[in-house]
Amino acid sequence: MRLVVVSAGLGVPSSTRLLADRLATATAGRSGAGVRVVEVVEVRELAVEIAHTFTNGFPGRNLSAAFDAVAGADGLIVVTPVFSASYSGLFKSFFDALSVTDADALAGKPVLIGATGGTARHSLVLEHALRPLFAYLKAVVVPTGVYAASEDWGAEGLDGRIERAAGELAALMGGLSAVPAQTAGQAAEQTAGQAAERAAAPAASADGVVPFEERLAALRPAG
């Protein structure tokens, strides 16, 4: 399964990229998940092409390749620095431009959200900004988001949050293949149940309308 990472860090080195890499390593390391990181998208390298997309109406070559990677991924890790209590403008612009070119690029796709900031007071950015954004884009956001303030690096707690979020993403990425197939016995039982429901259903009148009282009576338990 293909995992793509989108990092919106601006500096080099970047704590945002560091968090993204640790989340990717933890997800790829889940035993038996079969997840591999196929690409890391550094949004800052695409800033000019993102701006041109809004004025020209189509992405440049590098941005188009990044969009293809994101759309073709089985799962995403997205990490942004916090500015003014929200995601960065460049981070938002990347996904705005993506939705302009392909409105359903993230539909049904598992996404792990992460953010970095100078203080823990901004940790709710995950819930009031990132989670609604990706829910709007029809993505499936993992329950655990990971926020790392400056004091979290090297302190207790961050590793546990990373591992929990990575496990949830890996489970979601493999979720469809893990759904057990319906057995022949279960199929026969379901068919018999549907037949019994049809037999117990009240008969419609000549005009096709079943009185409401008859519908209620059909739902009452026997005896």
Structure write-up:
By secondary structure, this protein is an alpha/beta fold. The chain has one domain (2-177): Flavodoxin domain (Rossmann fold, 3-Layer(aba) Sandwich). It contains 9 helices and 7 strands; from the N terminus they run E-H-E-H-H-E-E-H-E-H-E-E-H-H-H-H. It has helices at 15-28, 47-56, 61-72, 89-101, 125-136, 158-173, 175-178, 184-200, 212-219, and strands at 2-7, 36-42, 75-83, 86-87, 110-117, 140-141, 146-149. Strands 1, 2, 3, 4, 5, 6 and 7 form a 7-stranded mixed beta sheet that branches. Strand 5, helix 5 and strand 6 form a beta-alpha-beta unit. Helix 1 packs across helix 6 and helix 2 crosses helix 4 (89-101). It comes from Streptomyces pactum. Keywords: Flavoprotein, FMN, Oxidoreductase. This is Oxidoreductase.
Task: Count every helix, treating DSSP H or I runs of 4 or more residues as helices.
Answer: 9
Number of domains: 1
Write out the CATH superfamily name. Flavodoxin domain
How much β-strand is present in the residues? 15-25%
InterPro entries: CE1759_FMN_reduct, Flavoprotein-like_sf, FMN_Rdtase-like_dom, NAD(P)H-dep_FMN_reductase
GO molecular function: oxidoreductase activity
Domain NADPH-dependent FMN reductase-like: 1-153
Keywords: Flavoprotein, FMN, Oxidoreductase
